[in-house]
Amino acid sequence: MTKIKNILIAGLISCCSTAIFTSCSEDDLNPQSIVTADKVDYTEFDYWLQRNYVMPYNIVFKYRYEDNESDMDYYTIPARYDASVKLAHIVKYVCLEAYDEVAGITFTRSYFPKLIFTIGEWEYNNNGTFILGTAEGGRKIMLSGVNYIEKYMGNAESLNYYYLKTIHHEFTHILNQTKDYSADFKLITGSGYVADKWSEAPYNAGNLPRGFISTYAQHSDTEDFAEMLSYFICNSEEQWKTWMQQAGTQGAHLINAKLDIVSDYMLTAFGIDIYKLREAIQRRQRDLTQGRVDLVDLTR
C-alpha cells in the first residue's frame, strides 16, 4: 500500500535561528521523555493518557522519543515531559473535544488519527522553512517544536500558527484521504499552484489578492484545502473579514468560492457545520489563552 505523507511547512524567521539552537542546548530533558530501554516505567502522565486518550478515543499519544516514528532525514530531539503534558491537554480540549461538541464523539473516534507523535524541535529544511507537522496514511499526526509550547501558550495567534492550526490542517488531510472533495476546488485557482516555489519571491507575499488564504496554500490544491479549513476555524470572524478586505474584490471572490466548497464538503461528508465548529474552537481557545484550563492536572 502506498504511504501518503502530508506535510505542513512554515517559513523560517531568520533572526530566530541562533536563539532556537542555543535554547535547545540548554534544555534539561526529563528522563521520562526518552526511551532508553525496552521496559518503561509508567508515569502519572501515562495513566492520564490512558484515561483521556486511549479509553475514549483509542488514540495513542506518544511523547517518548522513538526512532521508528521519526523522520531520519532531520535532526530531531525528544519532547520534554512537562511540555508534552501541556500539549496533550491542549489537543484534548481545543481539538478532540471541539469535534466532540459539534459532531459527536463517534465522529472523533472514527476519524481522528490513532497515533499522535511528538518531537521537541522543528524539522528544518535547507530552503529557509521548517516543518510544523505531518500526517501519514490517515493513522498518524506528528507534531514538532513541542519544547516551545510554553512560549506561545498565552498568545492565541502564535499558538494557532505553530500548533493548533497544524493539528486541524493535518486532520483535514486525513478526512480528505477518507472522502475526497470536489474536483471543482482545484479549478478555482488551478493555474496558481507553484509547488515548492511557494516560499520564494514573488509567491512569498501577496497571496490574498491571488486568491490564497496563505502563502503555503499555493503549494497544491490539497494543501490549499487544508489551509482553507484550518485558517477558517482557528481564526475569528473579525480576522476573516479583515483578510477578505485585504484580498480585494477578486481575491475575496476566489477565496470565498473555495470556502463554499470546503463548507459543503464538511457538511455533506461528515455532517459538520464549519461555522459552529469555528465558534466552538474560538471559545475553547479563549479559555486556554486566558488561563481557564488546567494544563498540568493529571488526576482526572
Q: What characteristics describe this protein?
A:
alpha/beta
C-alpha termini separation: 40 Å
Uncertain stretches of 5 or more adjacent residues:
12-27
**Overall pLDDT confidence:** 85
Q: How does the overall form come out from the CA principal axes?
A: globular
Helix content: 40-55%
Radius of gyration: 19 Å
Total number of beta strands: 6
Task: Give the count of helical stretches.
Answer: 10
Structural class of the helix and strand makeup?
Answer: alpha/beta
Tell me the major beta sheet. Answer: 6 strands, mixed
SSE run: EHHEHHEEEEHHHHHH
Strand content is 5-15%
Polypeptide structure, described:
A hairpin with a 3-residue loop joins β5 and β6. Helices cover 50% and strands 9% of the residues. The chain starts with a strand and ends in an 11-residue tail after the last helix. By secondary structure, the chain is of the alpha/beta class. Strands 1, 2, 3, 4, 5 and 6 form a 6-stranded mixed sheet that branches. It has helices spanning 17-26, 44-57, 81-103, 105-111, 149-152, 156-178, 184-188, 221-234, 237-270, 274-289, and strands at residues 5-11, 60-62, 115-118, 123-124, 129-136, 140-143.
